[in-house]
Hints:
Blueprint: H1 4-14, H2 20-29, H3 32-35, E1 53-55, E2 62-65, E3 71-78, H4 80-85, H5 87-103, E4 108-118, H6 124-144, E5 148-155, E6 164-173, E7 189-194, H7 204-207, H8 228-243, E8 249-252, H9 257-269, E9 272-276, H10 289-292, E10 300-305, H11 310-319, E11 324-331, E12 335-340, E13 343-349, H12 350-355, H13 383-391, H14 400-403, E14 414-416, E15 423-426, E16 432-438, H15 441-446, H16 448-466, E17 469-478, H17 485-504, E18 509-515, E19 519-522, E20 525-528, E21 532-540, E22 558-562, H18 573-579, H19 591-606, E23 612-615, H20 620-627, E24 635-638, H21 650-655, E25 662-666, H22 671-680, E26 685-692, E27 696-698, E28 703-705, H23 706-715, H24 718-721
Parallel strand pairs: 4-5, 9-12, 17-18, 24-27
Antiparallel strand pairs: 1-2, 2-3, 3-6, 4-6, 7-10, 7-11, 8-10, 9-11, 12-13, 14-15, 15-16, 16-21, 17-21, 19-20, 22-25, 22-26, 23-25, 24-26, 27-28
Amino acid sequence: MLTKRELDHATETLGRDPTETELNMLDVLWSEHCSYKSSQRWFHLFNTEGERVFLGPGEGAGLVDIGDDVLVGVAMESHNHPSQIDPYNGAATGVGGIIRDVISQGCRPVGLMNCLRFGPLSKSHNAYLLEHSVHGISEYGNSVGIPMIGGEVQFDISYDDNCLINVVCIGTVTPEKIVRSSAKTPGHLLVMFGSTTGRDGIAGVSFASESFSDEEDENRGAVQIGDPLAKKVVLDVLEELIDKELLEGLQDLGGGGLTSAAGEMASKGGTGVLIEVEKVPLREEGMVAQEIIISESQERMLAIVNPEKIDDVKDILEKHDTPHGVIGKVTDDGFYTVMENGEIRARLPIDLLVDGFPVPERIEEQLQMGSGSHAWIKEPEDQSEFLLQMIGSLNICDRSWVYSQYDQHVQSNTIVGIGENAGVIEFPKGKRLAFTSDCNSLWCLLDPRSGAANSAAESLRNLVSMGAKPIFIADCLNFGNPERPESYSQFVEAVRGLGQFSHDFDIPIVGGNVSLYNEAVVEGKHKRINPTPQIMIGGMFEIGVNPVRRNLSTPLANIFLVGTTHRELNGSQFQKMTLDQVKGIPPIYQPGIENKVMNTMLEAHSKRILRSCNNIGRGGLAIALMKMVMNSDLGFTINADEIPGTSKTLTENLYSETSARYLAEVPESNQAEFLGLMEQNDIPTVELGLVVTDKVANFGSFSVPIRQAREVYRQGIAKYME
């Protein structure tokens, strides 16, 4: 809803009271979801430029040049509130919406990702949300024929009443086929095509821009209904329209519906638009202007067409039996005019509608950070039993219950599927890219700035462990109510951390999304999610460098620990499991060391001297090692009692989550070259032990049967979903 200040501003600017249709249009375009009125003032902190950036933030998708006239398009969005209310349709339409963002630039979609957050599955409602969200994602993505190549699933009590559904779409396009989302030429026609327009999704962006109440049912009408088969038709139609160069501009109808799509195109083109709502193809009777203009019905596109080409466009749409209508035109008056059967229902200046909102005051406060250099710990009485508990815990265990429902190979371009550190797909002309996403919300809760930067660093290491050089970032920033100083401060600090990371590593941020108001009012109390800046990074392989997986592969090869281990258990999975909370100062962000280790590991990959490699992240060294044998026929024997760094005990060595560390499997024939490379670059490296044929994880002072560990690992999620 518009605030009193916003309503007064609109009335004063117009010199009159807004009409009911105008109030609805302003409400959706000035919502947090569309306007970014609390967040855009901080985007200058991001590095958004680079030699590979063809098109940065501000369009439907960012475009990255990977050479030989091949561009990668990427977009990342959230569909959190709708998925909490209706997980199947909320998650499915999240996928549908992100696909539209990418195709609106002329890209052909080639990959999807999803990053999910729920409360603990011991609560049946959280299991219900997971089940139906995954069902919605899989049915939509599988039906439309785009492979799912990666993602993340995490659980925490803070998401009990506000799950997170973040989605990514990746596409490809050549420079001459790019379509921009602007309406530059007065007299050009506005053509809507795809599905028809109904009442589903009305005021969806307004719903997404406020905290939840206890009354969920009243918001169900704001949840869109997806139709993947209709989306497939839209994809086919667009491919033909773009190939024949029939479009002067293109925008998807997502949040804010026709108000947003036409308004933003006019704003970018410096023009105006005239919409005749009676010409919009409808599927429900009795719809009036204020409903039609803000409906968020799915699978719809808005194109700008030269009148000289309109017959060719209509021929293609009719050939594909696609509902369509010429609903208006581009004007030169700078107004968004809505007509209904010859009567004016709205006439708003474009600059007022799109970004003319009064900037809201937001207050930062000093966040209460933890103290103490390292966590109090108690050595587990039985190290073997504790490791089994951790490997089966929800935030460590196997995710195959989720990703086995996704088609990962439908376009035959998937080189490495879900379950590794990153998904890898092949682009035209032999280009191979890896994609991964990460966020450690426990670190971000303790220190949003360093937590966001370190989460990005962990995502980076996932790529580097496979041999891919990080080249771009997309993000989805999920936080609480910005009107509350603590929530707003968490957001600002996280943006500062991610911005610092993007400059420290010279990796541009090419697109993203901000999702605020992720908190619920339950029995009069505010329950906010953990700060969750979800960070997706894309990386590129050198020609001739194949992805290196994390599974141990060579008997008697040595396992090396690369990097230094510190006493950093605050915010760790170990602390969460032993104390049922996190506290203190989380692991330190180390950009200088991280960068040096990254470049050295990439050089090792380019020399092809690693057989397997894993990033040490959530769960520490012990979990990283165990994941290297979950899908291997081999085991290992190591000594983790003494390793480089400040950690003092076996437990600290095993479970510290210090950054900038890797595990590398190196055969004997390559060890001299590997160790020489590490010494040359002054990278602390220690030989932990050997790969063995016995199916045992032997840590020296204790061991774990791998068969038993696998059973526990694979049942972590599945046992709640049976």
